Amino acid sequence: SGDAYGRAGHLIAKRTGHKGPKLLLIGHLDTVFELDSPFQEYKMLNDSIIHGPGVSDMKGGDVIIILAMKALKEAGVLDDMTIEIIMTGDEEKSGNPIELSKKDLIDGAKRADIALGFENADGKAQTMVTSRRGSLDWELKVNGKSAHSSQVFTENVGVGAIYEASRILNEFYQKLTNEENLTFNPGFIIGGTSLDANNELTGGTALGKTNVMAQEVIVRGDIRAVSLEQLERAKQIMIGITSKSYNGTISEIIFGDGGYPPLASTSGNKALLERYSEVSQDLGFGGITAVNPRNAGAADISFTSGYVEMAMDGLGLTGGGDDHTVRETGNLNHLSVQAKRAAVLLYRLCFQK
What we know:
By secondary structure, the protein is α/β, with parallel strands linked by helices. The chain has helices at about 55-75, 100, 105-110, 160-175, 230-245, 265-280, 335-350; strands at about 10-15, 20-30, 45, 50, 80-90, 115, 125-130, 135-145, 185-190, 195, 205, 215-225, 250-255, 290, 310, 330.
């Protein structure tokens, strides 16, 4: 049950065997489409392309997990394997507090040696994810002095809140855009002589006049980094920029609690990719390369970082397109390919050195 964190609960299945490493398989049951979205049902566009909410992200991946388990059972080896499957109910929109919503997933990672995520990578059949960027929200609050616009730039009044907010955002851009794999996006801004933002800070109203200096600004955004070290370095730069306020203004940047941690690239993750690529080649499906982390957003597997020896994501349904939109599709021709790759990889991890 997800009552404690305001989202759907998780589906968890466990099997304890006596051979090989402890495996954690990760899926999720939710989609980005709310109940009021008109996109609620699936249909076949032809004999292989399925169109519907979450068919690629990530109902297809959930089905691949089930097919891989079925194959291992029919091969008579499943009983000897230690496998925990967690299909979360809040990957697309995490429950709050995140410490509760992700507790089962983190506890599963602590019990595991290897974590495999069944998201759909970057939609290509020959790529896998060994590193994902984390995501953290931030909020910038700026306060200035309200006065007649004729007094702007004077020593007693200063520049007003909107000039200060624009200075900060511009310096974020100037000082951080050259950092590889780091992005930061101001997705919401509201400013004027007075503000009335909604509780979720996703909208609101602002009052102001052209001949009155703005007194308040709120900006909300996110920051995505490929490692905890990169995230912390960027946060300190952003804090330093914010603290150097223009005359007559006071600014504060607040970083959210929790968020999605980055899945840093490790030697274990790279070794796991090599094993998977060997499996794919042996099955006649070709080699596999790593996705550029710039093209891999936050996902549940990131919460295993630091707990498991190896982690990899992207074992889900490939060949779709336009995820998170009403044009989302999945290619069922890839279903058996991905299921075979997954089943053979799991077998080799447990029974072959």
